[in-house]
Write a structure and sequence with these properties.
The protein is mainly α. It contains eleven helices and two strands, in the order ααααααβααααβα.
Length: 335
């Protein structure tokens, strides 16, 4: 048995004043632990998108008709609200799981030795995006699932996935200046791919806002556009992204690029093909809820795949950084 050291009054005061520094002094996670923590935050960022889609597709968007309480008189769902209340309240509770995953990533990054400020900043960026999106989610409920606020809610979740993906990637590399692995024309081509993907996702939110899945069984405002015409625009953008990914793979082969960019581009192309199949099947089968949910999940995978391609175009060597003092840590948490 290992004797548990006594916690002095000074330790307790230090823990209250700067809990992250207190933990970092007593715990050094392995590189694998830090990477797993970052991956857990990414997985939960995707999970919150999928469960949010489930809320919408089951018509449970107003299962809890107010916010931050579930009803005017109850913080939690009640039996009178039925399954819709359970689904909506369950999605709200999952936000706490997401916060815990992001918190673990922040603590693990802060406790890593040697300390890497870039990782903790990415962790805190996720935290503030989660907090902002939680408030925006409350606004979505209070305005009766206005489609424009719903679209903004999804796009902010997409930003969270981007930061989480970047942190996950950065746990496997250093903090030195990035060294490109391919030429500038290839880099520019990938940035075009990223821009096209962002546009594809944005138009996808318009399709959802104009489409039949309003998110609640009551009368909900829709974007005043013909959703089938918007869907066709979405499909054209999807083909542009697929074509760019396909062409990029051949360009990388032609310039004898390293295996990293080639493998990430291949993975992206396969995800795009699967997403395209789901998209066309759901369109020609009148948008069944299960396929729409899978399409939302595929959207997250496409976005992650594109970011992995972008991040695979460079490498970063290790640069050691000093461990921050309490004043620096306090400043960081407010950044």
């Amino acid at each position: 048995m290992v004797r548990v050291p006594n916690v002095t009054r000074a330790d307790a005061v230090a823990a209250v004043r700067n809990p992250l520094a207190f933990i970092a002094e007593r715990w050094t996670p392995t590189s694998r632990t830090v990477r797993r923590a970052a991956l857990a935050a990414l997985v939960m960022a995707v999970a919150i998108v999928v469960t949010g889609g489930a809320v919408r597709l089951t018509g449970s968007g107003l299962g809890c008709p107010t916010w931050p309480k579930c009803t005017d008189d109850s913080l939690t769902t009640t039996s009178a609200m039925g399954v819709h209340g359970v689904i909506e309240f369950g999605n709200r509770m999952l936000t706490y799981v997401l916060c815990a995953a992001v918190g673990w990533a922040i603590v693990a990054a802060r406790s890593r030795k040697p300390f890497r400020r870039s990782l903790t900043r990415l962790g805190w960026a996720q935290f503030w995006i989660v907090m902002s999106n939680a408030v925006l989610g409350g606004v979505v409920v209070l305005v009766g699932l206005n489609p424009y606020t719903v679209a903004a809610h999804f796009l902010l979740s997409t930003a969270l996935i981007a930061v989480a993906t970047l942190m996950w990637r950065r746990t496997g590399e250093g903090d030195g200046p990035p060294r490109p692995l391919v030429g500038k024309p290839v880099q520019q081509m990938v940035w075009v791919l990223v821009a096209a993907t962002v546009l594809l996702i944005a138009v996808g939110t318009v399709v959802t806002g104009a489409g039949p899945h309003a998110g609640d069984s009551s009368e909900v405002e829709r974007i005043p556009l013909d959703w089938e015409n918007v869907t066709k625009v979405h499909a054209v953008l999807a083909w542009i992204v697929v074509t760019l990914a396909f062409a990029l793979w051949f360009v990388l082969k032609a310039v004898d690029a390293p295996r990293g960019p080639l493998d990430r581009t291949r993975d992206l192309f396969l995800v795009l093909l699967g997403q395209g199949v789901i998209g066309y099947v759901q369109y020609f089968t009148d948008l069944p809820e299960v396929l729409v949910g899978l399409h939302m999940f595929g959207s997250c995978l496409v976005w992650i795949g594109v970011l992995r391609v972008l991040l695979s175009l460079r490498e970063r060597p290790e640069i050691l950084a000093e461990v921050p003092g309490p004043a620096t840590e306090s400043t960081l948490t407010r950044a």
